[in-house]
Amino acid sequence: MIRRVGAKISADNTCDFIVWAPFPEKVQLEIQGWKRAVDMNSDQYGYWFATLENITPGTRYKFILDGQLRRPDPASRCQPCGVHEWSEVVASHDFGWNDSEWQNIALSEMIIYELHIGTFTAEGTFTAAIDKLDHLLALGVNTIEIMPISQFPGSRNWGYDGVYPYAAQYSYGGPEGLKSLVDVCHQKGIAVILDVVYNHMGPEGNYLSDFGPFFTDKYTTPWGKAINFDDPYSDHVRSFFLQNALMWLDEFHIDGLRLDAIHAILDNSARHFLKELRQNVDELQLKTLRRHYLIAESDMNDVKIIQPYNNGGYNLDAQWVDDFHHAVHTLATGENDGYYSDYGSVADLAKAFRQAFVYDGAFSLFRKRTIGNSPAGQRSEQFVACIQNHDQVGNRMLGERLSQLVSFEMQKLAAGVMLIAPFVPMLFMGEEYGEDHPFLYFVSHGDPNLVAAVRKGRKREFRYFKWKGSVPDPQAEETYNQSKLQWNYHENERQTRLLNYYRQLINLRKNGAFGLFKNTGIKTDIDEKNKLLVIYSGGSKDQKQLGAVLNFSKKKHRVKLAKRDQQWCKIMASSDQ
Amino acid sequence: MIRRVGAKISADNTCDFIVWAPFPEKVQLEIQGWKRAVDMNSDQYGYWFATLENITPGTRYKFILDGQLRRPDPASRCQPCGVHEWSEVVASHDFGWNDSEWQNIALSEMIIYELHIGTFTAEGTFTAAIDKLDHLLALGVNTIEIMPISQFPGSRNWGYDGVYPYAAQYSYGGPEGLKSLVDVCHQKGIAVILDVVYNHMGPEGNYLSDFGPFFTDKYTTPWGKAINFDDPYSDHVRSFFLQNALMWLDEFHIDGLRLDAIHAILDNSARHFLKELRQNVDELQLKTLRRHYLIAESDMNDVKIIQPYNNGGYNLDAQWVDDFHHAVHTLATGENDGYYSDYGSVADLAKAFRQAFVYDGAFSLFRKRTIGNSPAGQRSEQFVACIQNHDQVGNRMLGERLSQLVSFEMQKLAAGVMLIAPFVPMLFMGEEYGEDHPFLYFVSHGDPNLVAAVRKGRKREFRYFKWKGSVPDPQAEETYNQSKLQWNYHENERQTRLLNYYRQLINLRKNGAFGLFKNTGIKTDIDEKNKLLVIYSGGSKDQKQLGAVLNFSKKKHRVKLAKRDQQWCKIMASSDQ
Description:
The structure is a homodimer.
Chain A: E1 6-9, E2 15-20, E3 27-31, E4 38-39, E5 41-42, E6 47-52, E7 60-65, E8 69-71, E9 87-88, E10 112-115, H1 117-120, H2 126-130, H3 133-139, E11 143-146, E12 150-151, E13 164-168, H4 174-188, E14 191-196, H5 208-211, E15 215-221, E16 224-227, H6 234-251, E17 256-259, H7 273-288, E18 293-296, E19 318-320, H8 322-333, H9 346-355, E20 362-364, E21 369-371, E22 383-386, H10 390-394, H11 408-420, E23 424-428, H12 448-461, H13 477-482, H14 493-510, E24 523-527, E25 532-536, E26 547-551
Parallel strand pairs in A: 10-11, 10-23, 11-14, 14-17, 17-18, 18-19, 19-22, 22-23
Antiparallel strand pairs in A: 1-2, 2-6, 3-4, 3-7, 5-6, 7-8, 7-9, 12-13, 15-16, 20-21, 24-25, 25-26
């Protein structure tokens, strides 16, 4: 009933083309350079198929719907001329992998580094990213998380406007480029997580509705029409995204997927899409004999996402914990606008440190309702914590990183909280040396109306914040170029010091120095007045104990540590660096 | 933060008026006959309150929003002049109950009888219904399920257009009338389930949006705007409905709620409204020391609804199982239009008999997607099964009951399947004697545009069916009167025979004659060609065994029963009656 979609070429240059289009009465396959389009056959479920011989990789094709609409393949593996033009046949199974020894890194051991291919390097390609891997290794990072790379309009985009989920962005280096990056990562001992967007489609080059009911009017999302996960025909839509996830994990050797904004994957059917996805990946693991992680971005604080199947959960491996970021950010910056208004106390950070969720069934004044449920019983590696990420930096009007907002000492303090915390830490590219260029929001749409709408929408996004000044033009190439990492830390003493500090912290973490904070029973002493937080590991008296003193004020304070039989002994102090 | 809403009068004639209206800047209380409106005070959550002295029951009031809109109380307990007019203060706690000995009936023992107050008797009132209770007792019914009685526009309505959830329909006899009915039921040993609608509001007299964000644009339902269960301010909206449920169970001594169409209660927050509802009722039970049931109407076939909390479930007590109805109906009638096209085989009925869900992760051709998950491990009393109900009869164009569609023998066969099945059986009023008047769809809206829309919508509803003829006018009084039970079975030999047959079956069921079908391991022999289904209870060879032979064809067939050491012995045959 369900078929694999896309163009699949065999060693003998036979190529199967399959597309799901349940409504058109006729679908034809157009091969670039051929005189006549090929009529496709269909089955009762709306799949159309044609098998052609003498097709070589690089062959370009489109589908013609009802003799009228000429459209690229929704499951295209390659869009060499952008989102509106020909799809290209790709030889998918002949890449020469060198990572047969590779095994994924345990979640609890991961040090994640989020990066955006376009701005991570001057060149903005997969290949150029390879050159930076040694820097990451020296830093201690063992996992990169790549922002979405599915083909998007133009060459400048965060990736959340992707419209060809199966096609690695051509300007980044296309599918071969991505495979090379993953292959080298694995040889160097680095895991790769890919950010995928299964909650909406980009606005430009999105021809999915010409093919079938990929969207539903039953629900809306902040980014437009919701994807049809539970209405008529949804089995095929779900399969389209399930196959996509499996492609990345299986064919591209990706180690984990970061699932964008799963609160906008609206599915009220008896098996939630995310559960089905995890079950599909469970099966894949039996084939690849590798562990593949699924990590959700969720604003719901709902442990259902990460609970086991038999507790009614979707069994995803982990989820991002925004509460941790917000608790640190508000203490570090003093900002209290917009959604940051729900945070700002030392107690919030203490709670986040102890149990990830600050909103665990608590009322949010900003969101104007009760949020979340209790994370009790979850393991600390089920939460990914950061002090900066693409959203928290890039969704500021001026895209300021923490290095542009707080003092050097505060940067070190914030990094310290993240790296001693029991959760999986995630750095945002450049954070490790305090990059001083911003990370702005940028697009390169081809449709002038859309560009105008994005400019307007951007302003609207900041309505809850008191930021002053003018919004950088998302469409301008300059905005994109400004956002590239400068990698000048060698010329900057403070940046070098910060980098060494991160290295040292990560090294300590990897050697287990902060492992006691993963035990349950963490105790926290809260001093709101002086902005002091003291954290003690749990466990019985005669065991080893770990303590941390965090001073978010601008003053020095004398802190009396809890009494114990043995002397306290300093592991490190951020101010020493 | 959350307050109890409505008008609450004390013994000393002090009355607290509380209404939630977070957006108006000013809310006043207008008492009928008073010269000036009373200014109300508000708290930060948008609750407005006033306490007045010398208020007697029967006092009429409205709220004035921002000095302009004069509106009845959304939590009104009584609307003596309809949905647009004054609300009335009701003395809620001085009813003289006589049911102190009452304990609810175990779900597994229930024989439910669904009735519509307006058409159950000639008078169409709660009081008149009391006179029929002895008939029900003689039949063996021990539970009535009352279709929704919350105040709706006019005096003729199924009840799903209610707009004052807290006000028992005045033309039925209002709150006092309902209490009297419940009180007498309990004295006679009859439990009362009330059908409540928490998924939408009726279209006429619905002033909720003037008060606050009761609805959300994020989701849509087949009946219009979705109720706001998870957007900003939803804590208060949820509370409005939670308090309503508790009112019926606590103050009105209702034994269980039938929750209408819970698939349209769209809530993606970390604690689903239905779970919160069940948790609230759990607490109430500690106070009332009575068991209160929550039974869901759901089209999702999702066991999450009825699974325990620790399996991620909402822990509701039971859910309707439409699959059972459809499997019987299609076999009995031969109908295969619309959603009935997904059923019709003996195998479907066998599956429904064995495990309730036919669609347990199976693909539905009519719904064009995979439906349901496995009900394995659920108890049979968690499913309510019927062969007729208000929807299945009344949503036919001509409202025909089974008695108008199939032979006398088939009526008995269908009744037999339901009453030997392991699920909780539910009869639809009049079914027990084969009432030959229809149960049609009727309304009595005051808005001519709405009446036109209903007439049009009604026709649209039948588009998947091949019914011929003209649609009876829902607005016509005649349509309502036609739908009233005639109670003429004494004058009709077949009706009397059918009634005796139902009595005998119910009696046998209550004496445990069919109990073996509740054990797991039921075996079924399926003969599609001859439309024969043979059912055997599970269990080991030397145990007692129960068998049933169901012949849905019009011919006689010889059926060879499974061999066993002891002889088979006939309990009853429908053809003997």
